[in-house]
Amino acid sequence: MENPKQANLPSKKKPPFEVSKALWSYMENVGVVAKLPLQYDDMSRYFSSIPVRNQKGEETHWETVFYNEHESKEINDACCQIYAYLKTDGDLKVIEHLEVDRIDYCLFGNTNPYRVRIINRINDNYDHFYIKRIDASRIYGLELEYLLSPNIVSYLVDKNTIIEEHIAGIPGDDFIKNNLDVSSFDKIRIAKEFIKFNERCFARLLGDMRSYNYVMDITPDIEGNQYRIRAIDFDQQSFEGRRNFYLPQYFKDNNGIIQLGMEFLKPESVIQYQLEERSLIARRARSELDRINLLLNCMVKDKLSMPEKVLQLKAELKDHHKSEIFDDCETMGDLVHCNLKLLLQKEFKQSFIKIIHR
Hints:
By secondary structure, the protein is of the alpha+beta class. The chain has two domains: 21-133, no CATH class; 170-355, no CATH class.
């Protein structure tokens, strides 16, 4: 694996992009539009808050919010209904034993989400979901995650609101800090998964995968563990103009895993894992071809970035792939479409391997 240069950080805070009529129609067709009993703006009626601290007592980017008695009951009932819509397709029988344990508000990021903690009174088991402002970039990111990755993220939309389920796993920054002291066998598996994650992000142009924007899902296996990196932030789907922004290998936050690859993987293995993941992406794309075409037909017409960023990424992808397929691209959706077309045609190039042992 490559010893990366520092990836350029986002040029500025990304603005939200409007959901077009075509994208709304697509979402209605795939069944994610729902009439919700609560909107994002309703969550702002809290009257006080306290900082959320981590297990070490350090402040985080979250604060727990509090509502008056009337607002609290209304929001509690609505959140339990939303959880039923998200988890059981609207079967409200499940909410009889549910209640809202806590609501946190995030002060960081583009969507400023609310995190709702739902608890089952019978066994004290809990789960989370998120209430966010709607953004076309995020919708496309979630859909491409569903269609092209091994992961599924359930979500619902209504008006200006998107509801997302919680993605379980160890935050990437915590994992790199605390969980890399494992067997050589596990280190190889971690490095292998990062290569595959790198491929998935670049193929569909999902950007800004710094360590705190993904989680590590660990599954115990017969020998050692199986690892899967799951993106949790989809706001930077096809927004920035720099090619390296879509390659997690270039973020210094990920250096801990990069070092594992440099130590334990040979170039031949890196190539093998890249080709394996591209084949899996292509197989998923072919199995969902109709839905992908419907999505891309919307995406190529939508504004998801600024013209100068589109031009920059167009030039950098053309140079990277040494292909004229990008010449007629005018939108970020066009670039995603062409990038995936090259992958399906097995003409997808990656500079990753060329400079591993420089």
